[in-house]
């Protein structure tokens, strides 16, 4: 019995593993394990029966959590954009831009994957869309099947780390941190990981060009009447937009001064970036609209096509993420604006229908319900686990690892990497992260950095052969049997499962390299965050002591048992207090001290003989710690 009581938390964790191995859904396994060990612990007297009363409050807290509303909003936004044909248009257009160079189609997949991640945030939608659209084209023009499979699966998983990522929302909620800060911290690592994918494709184009051939001339559809590709016009448009953005960023304070009518000397960097980029891309859109309406021939077909396809999703990204970064909107409000913006874009393209809307709403409801059920199950489990002092057990287990912070981070990331073979990122976020966060915080690890680090690592859960979900998504749309290409009429070989697995391995290694880089350089995450405001607790204490001293001087001489100069009936220090410090009623008036005894003058803190200065000093010491 003593052994069971002393080791109840680890036994409970082993019990959870047994529940999962039985094959039950994760949400129900978590709840069943929590309730089973909860009732057993009550029967054994390990914790009181009042633990059951905590559960309704926790469940109500989940339903009242505004942050989690961002999950269905961003999911709906992504599904509407994906089903309204945005992914197809982006892949076709950017594929034409990069097609003439070796590896151009693979680069287009990476860039479109990043754009879809910034608009959809849903891995399944990105991988399936790009698998259906770009995989047949890459196979048609001779791309290596392993590379084609790997680059599509890996680019789709960028939705894990590029805001507005769903995993970052869940991570922020579990770590008790701001979603906006989590988004800011993830931006640089996300672009660096995208850059690693680009460098890998470019290296193959240089050293193994046969794996990544260029598009043949007959496949390039956007050509001018004279046969040119229209690239000079596109380059000029990009340069003009870039120069306007740089000009706006450098003179943002002057723009504010003109707009507000008062002198503004400085503007936050994130506001400069968002507003300047919005200005640049909006100018490009205006030029393209004028060119389309007037037929002035300002832009080539390629430049006009790129502008109309690329600018609307970019403006939507700036609208959603920009308002979050600037503090204009919360992530929930940003997600709502994004969903409305997606509806407007779908209607403007003429591709929004009732059937599409019903499908998107049904899929959003399923995914949101999936998340909420896992969260409810994880809450039941964690409630009982905490009552059994599980966090202390985890802390003792991990806090004494050799190497301090570095040893802890290496161990945790290896553990997450292994668990990702069997659990997806929702399950890892709800089960493992709440156990690790208190230990990381106690070791002095910034929780935003910790959350982004784990989010990058959790990407591997989608890419692990043989259980990666992104590989399953791609397998569902990749050809399993020989087929006849619709355009060329040639019989094409299928894509085997082993080719998909082999193609994923280099990208898993790149993700692990990114994890190592973030461990060695936490400034890549924390450098993007707003500087923490430091409060001088000693100065605050001095000011409070002065105010308390003045109050004591005003109250001291005139206080009596019947009242004091603060208007308190009977004074805080007399025997006839209406309330005591503990909140209990004091003795009736007829039991108070006789009037002949001089009442003790009230102290500034109001609690009898207690010294408020000492209490204040203790509080300030704790604050400075």
Automatic annotation (TrEMBL):
Listed name of the protein: TRAP transporter large permease subunit
Compositionally biased spans, kind Low complexity: 582-598
Ranges annotated as biased composition (Gly residues): 551-574
Species: Ottowia testudinis
Molecular-function annotations in GO: transmembrane transporter activity
Region (Disordered): 551-625
GO cellular component terms, semicolon-separated: plasma membrane
Record membrane topology: Multi-pass membrane protein
Ranges of Basic and acidic residues composition bias in the record: 611-625
Keywords: Cell inner membrane, Cell membrane, Membrane, Transmembrane, Transmembrane helix, Transport
Membrane spanning residue stretches: 7-28, 34-55, 67-85, 105-135, 147-171, 186-207, 228-253, 273-294, 306-329, 335-357, 369-388, 408-436, 504-525
Role this protein plays: Part of the tripartite ATP-independent periplasmic (TRAP) transport system.
Pfam families, per the entry: DctM
Subcellular location: Cell inner membrane
Domain of life per record: Bacteria
